[in-house]
């Protein structure tokens, strides 16, 4: 049948035309277009990758921020605690110091008083002795020859009988 | 999908038989010779008819585009270059003692014989094909320019890019992403070249209506290209597999090896027959639907035949894309089978 026998002329023309259109379209359409599609695909892929990275980075930063906040809170608490302790310590110290100082002053004052008192007693004793001797001398009429010996004796008695 | 294609082929193959049978029973001279009409539409021609009408005297007048006639005379080695207008309607050209003319079947003949001449004229089909090339260039190069300018496709370029991606997917799916890049341009060209010619064949008025993609010469050369590409790039594994058929008992090889070799050739053969039969069948159905009106010489039948023809036409539009797709997918599949190396499947 006529339909089933390929005409060689048309075979040749079809072949040449196909090769020509293959070459032309490959150079001017397929290569550039597929290249652009590839480029765009890569770009989208890259962008997605970048977005993912950014998200990860964000998550990391967020975690870091949280960590830092936690840390700073802890630090603050620590600082507060320390300060409190320090203040307490200082107060205690000051109190203790004040106490010892006061005690010292008190003790000093007391010893001063003791000293004054002793001095006063000694003087009193001496005066009493001399007064006694004088009185005794006057009473006896004449001064004892050995006045000093008498005095010494009185002193001794006086010493023994403490004025307490 | 294949079932539809099969039904299309069956109907396409049955229709002309029916019509021929009716033809033989025909008695009246006035009745239209439908077989002739169909073969005229489906076959090739040396001129491109734009419009035809019946003159006052009943004679048929037509406006044709004359096409170049080029031929090689095998007897005396002469080349003939002429325009078909100087050969139409029984006109002949005398050259070096040979008389050239075009016979009733639109074949070029020298001294009344078609055998002694090698006709490589720029026929209606060739002209239609060149037009399809221009269209393809316009669409795809234009879209490429547009995409390059805007970076992201806009307007019509969106559709073009989707189609290109669709066809690229065929290559990637069948051949595998690693190896498909080399074959993608071939398969893309195959797909769009067949498709656009299928569409042109369906346009019922002047620049369309040719039956190029339903011409066996056209489908043959495309199938031959697929065959060549398949076997030029075939891997060692493919040849080993085809020629030794590993894994079968030795005796079986005497059957399997010839079978494999036959398969090598039947694959492109099915490609060319499938496309040819589908497209030609479709044309025959649509023409039959309209011819019924003239054959039965009643307008009443058009109530049935015109809507039916319309349905078939729409189906043909789908088949046009489908057949281009099938041709491309199977070509990609054969290439994929040939380039695959070893046991990675």
Number of strands of chain B: 8
Roughly how much helix do the residues of chain A carry, as a percent range? over 70%
* Helix/strand order of chain A: HH
Instruction: Count every helix of chain B, treating DSSP H or I runs of 4 or more residues as helices.
Output: 10
Q: What's the average pLDDT of chain A?
A: 87
Q: Spatial order of the strands in the main sheet of chain B?
A: 4-3-8
Low-confidence stretches of chain A: none
Strand-residue proportion of chain B: 5-15%
Oligomeric state of shown chains:
heterodimer
- Contiguous runs where pLDDT drops below 50 for at least 5 residues of chain B: 13-29
Helical percentage of chain B: 55-70%
Structural class of chain B: mainly alpha
Query: What is the first-to-last residue Cα distance of chain A?
Result: 165 Å
Please summarize the sheet with the most strands of chain A.
none
**Biggest chain pair contact, residues each?**
A-B, 32 and 47 residues
Q: Using the CA coordinates, give the radius of gyration of chain A.
A: 61 Å
Counting DSSP H or I runs of 4 or more residues, the number of helices of chain A is 2
Largest sheet entry of chain B: 3 strands, antiparallel
